[in-house]
Backbone:
């Protein structure tokens, strides 16, 4: 470490800041469904996830090797390029966190690195084959695989437990959710902490501290694991709300199926070096679990916003990374200006987030939605409209109520009323 220059030190610190944002940005991947179903209290959930993220960082280095020696050509790569790439990734992470969208921290990092490398050395600096086989193909396939697996697992769990007491079953699945959430956290640390290890290792190679193809040193593994664990403990509450409440309403059975499917996909990809997005995998599993329950609903308006964010992540982070590289290659003043823009942009995003703060005290409250989240309730569908048209209007205390789209989709019958206007006891037939 005695050969680390000031610029290289700045890059390492910036990489750890990215790792920290990755932690709180992706906490929802492991804990959103566990929190939304009540299996764990919010602070307990993020604390458990933080510890397991730290443990997961020590399980493998295959993804780190893919990043440090696969995406871009190391020959001629400058340390400033990596700094510019991290600027693009951090700003995109913070922006999507502000609006509560579970976008991919991994693709933000890849996009920033590709954009900065192209600005510095041209398109020949990118290993197109690696980008396609280990980034783009997994990006499309992984959420589909996890979603299909979660759909089938959800249907299987409901079929197995169809003749059992629902309350007893729910308690058992909540316990299973805790175990599966821990597995997702472990998988997240194994996959995502390695990305920061890879980017720091790449910086050390470009700075001449390590030889090309070297594995991450132990101090890199430890620091990356601690950074992502601290970020996870902070809790990305805005994204936890979207994942736990905004996409679909999950029962414990569905949460268990979603988390188990996601963890299996992430761990398998990590050990073969596929640097996929844990966010996309977990989001796909949540939607699959939502579709797997009879009468389940996926809020496609929220999902569409999320899909758009996924598609924009690589190019948007790439453009910011390219712009940052344009500044950094101007010399020391350019590096200073880029650092100032990063700090200033981060501060502005933080101030904006305080206008409608979300934390562990209100993350599960339905009535305290983020101002930007206007897609929680779906408009009435054809079935709901048809039923409402032929249903006599309620009287008395329920005169102002209507049959909602969610109640029909969830298979809940609207409450009946007596002739006196009081709500009928559901345990007894209504009197006329």
Residues:
């Amino acid at each position: 470490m005695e050969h680390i220059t000031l610029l290289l030190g700045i890059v390492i610190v910036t990489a750890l800041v990215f790792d920290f944002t990755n932690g709180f940005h992706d906490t929802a991947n492991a804990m959103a469904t566990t929190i939304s179903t009540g299996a764990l209290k919010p602070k307990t959930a993020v604390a458990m996830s933080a510890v397991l993220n730290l443990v997961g960082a020590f399980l493998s280095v295959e993804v780190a090797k893919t990043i440090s020696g696969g995406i871009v050509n190391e020959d001629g790569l400058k340390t400033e390029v990596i700094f510019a790439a991290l600027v693009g990734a951090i700003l995109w992470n913070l922006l999507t966190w502000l609006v509560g969208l579970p976008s991919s921290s991994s693709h933000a990092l890849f996009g920033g690195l590709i954009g900065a490398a192209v600005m510095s050395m041209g398109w020949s600096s990118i290993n197109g084959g690696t980008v396609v086989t280990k980034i783009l193909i997994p990006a499309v396939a992984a959420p589909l695989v996890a979603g299909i697996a979660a759909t089938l697992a959800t249907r299987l769990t409901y079929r197995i437990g169809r003749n059992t007491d629902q309350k007893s079953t729910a308690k058992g699945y909540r316990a299973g959710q805790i175990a599966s959430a821990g597995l997702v956290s472990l998988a997240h640390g194994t996959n995502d902490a390695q990305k920061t290890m890879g980017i720091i290792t790449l910086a050390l190679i470009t700075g001449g501290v390590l030889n090309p193809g070297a594995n991450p040193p132990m101090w890199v593994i430890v620091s990356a694991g601690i950074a992502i664990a601290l970020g996870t403990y902070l809790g990305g509450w805005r994204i936890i709300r979207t994942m736990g409440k905004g996409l679909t309403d999950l029962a414990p059975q569905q949460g268990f199926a979603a988390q188990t499917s996601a963890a299996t996909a992430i761990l398998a990809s990590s050990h073969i070096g596929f640097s996929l997005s844990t966010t996309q995998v977990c989001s796909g599993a949540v939607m699959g679990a939502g579709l797997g329950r009879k009468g389940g609903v996926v809020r496609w308006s929220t999902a569409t916003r999320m899909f758009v964010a996924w598609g924009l992540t690589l190019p948007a982070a790439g453009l910011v990374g390219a712009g940052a590289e344009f500044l950094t290659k101007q010399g020391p003043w350019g590096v200073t200006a880029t650092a100032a823009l990063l700090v200033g942009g981060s501060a502005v995003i933080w101030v904006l987030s305080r206008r409608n703060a979300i934390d562990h005290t209100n993350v599960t409250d339905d009535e305290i939605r983020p101002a930007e989240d206007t897609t929680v309730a779906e408009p009435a569908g054809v079935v709901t409209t048809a039923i409402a048209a032929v249903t006599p209007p309620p009287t008395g205390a329920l005169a102002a109520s209507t049959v909602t789209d969610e109640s029909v989709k969830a298979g809940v019958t609207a409450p009946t009323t007596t002739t006196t206007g009081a709500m009928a006891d559901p345990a007894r037939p209504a009197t006329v």
In short: The radius of gyration is 24 Å.
